[in-house]
DNA sequence: TTTAATGGTTTAAATATTTAAACCATATAA
DNA sequence: TTATATGGTTTAAATATTTAAACCATTAAA
């Protein structure tokens, strides 16, 4: 049984921030850097500036957007902040489910 | 076995247009209207303007972005165009797979 | 305590996106 | 043929986003 359209609509609104965050190529680059972090201990702003070619305030700005979207978090150690993509990411799971629901809807269209 | 990070990166770039298209609330409203189309025969620009409160050129502009993202298509009948979310949507499936890959990556982080 | 390093915030400028007005094209109806 | 309806395109203005410069705060080392 399909989800009703208004549930789909509110899920969509709920995921707006994440989708917007994921749509920017600079933020994609930051995410890729974070995912590729071999140390698995998080990356500092300084490391991300050299990896992405962005200024520190720009990286900081994008990290804030990614944090607000609940995709990225950080851990403070002394005066250093280590950023990472949240493991067991709730928002990503919600997005995955949402996309599944939309696909169900489009397939329903096909049948009629 | 995880996808390597550069494959993930190129998938991400490939999905930029779709993610950007999905991130805008006006376009979300258009998509919701299209998914909720009871007739299953597509909606005209005029129907979308009244449903979303946007002007015709604005709707037309957003529809173009959605078409470029390969999420929406249309069918011409005489001088009328009927827009719909593409059934069996390839891009949505790609996005679903991509999100799954990213989740795998973040879970790998958790383990170490 | 002074200095250096990390990094967040504010503000203003640059850039990109969104919108409406005005226009053009096409197809049907009168 | 002459309206009328649908809707796409172009352009300029409004709005939002992104960026860098300048600044502030905190921590650790000298």
TrEMBL record, chains A, B:
The keyword Transcription regulation applies. It holds the Pfam family HTH_5. Gene3D superfamilies: Winged helix-like DNA-binding domain superfamily/Winged helix DNA-binding domain (1.10.10.10). Keywords: DNA-binding, Transcription, Transcription regulation. Residues 8-110 form the HTH arsR-type domain. The keyword DNA-binding applies. PANTHER family: TRANSCRIPTIONAL REGULATOR, ARSR FAMILY, TRANSCRIPTIONAL REPRESSOR SDPR. This is ArsR family (ArsR). It comes from Eupransor demetentiae. The lineage of its organism: Bacteria, Bacillati, Bacillota, Bacilli, Lactobacillales.
């Amino acid at each position: 049984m399909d989800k009703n359209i208004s549930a789909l609509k509110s899920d969509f609104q709920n995921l707006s921030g994440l989708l917007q965050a994921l749509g920017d190529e600079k933020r994609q680059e930051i995410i890729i850097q974070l995912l590729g972090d071999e140390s698995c201990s998080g990356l500092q702003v300084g490391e991300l500036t050299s990896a992405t070619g962005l200024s520190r305030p720009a990286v900081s700005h994008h990290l804030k957007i990614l944090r607000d979207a609940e995709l990225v978090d950080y851990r403070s150690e002394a005066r250093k902040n280590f950023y990472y993509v949240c493991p067991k990411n709730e928002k990503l799971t919600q997005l995955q489910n949402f996309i599944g629901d939309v696909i169900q809807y489009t397939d329903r269209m096909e049948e009629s």
